[in-house]
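Model it.
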Amino acid sequence: MKTNKGSYILLIDIKKDFTVNLHHKEIKINKGLYAYIGSAMKNLYQRVGRHMTFKEKAYQKHWHIDGILENNENKIIFVAMLPSDKRLEEDISKEFAEKFQFIEGFGASDLTVKSNLYLVDNIDYFFEIIKSFIL
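Modeled.
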């Protein structure tokens, strides 16, 4: 039986520079490909589904990633779900931090890492990291 909890990685194509308002703070995000790492220790599939349909369903903003997803020009182009009883979000984020620039203060508010959003400038490294958590 599959577990419905774990971590996930979204690859988001941001077409042009914009500013996200996060809880009394503005963060400028430049165009490019970004990886967002998240976890859902309950209802993993529903959480990812919410992210995928955020614009169509007009959900209320709750997570930092919602500030990116509400912009119609930003598209999720790849999703990796890692069902697990163990919360891997921080471990995954640490691996991304070794390879990619991060947007400080984005997500990860309950973790020791500085961010959960990374500018992906090498797609091979992106998939290499994912592969290391799948195998």
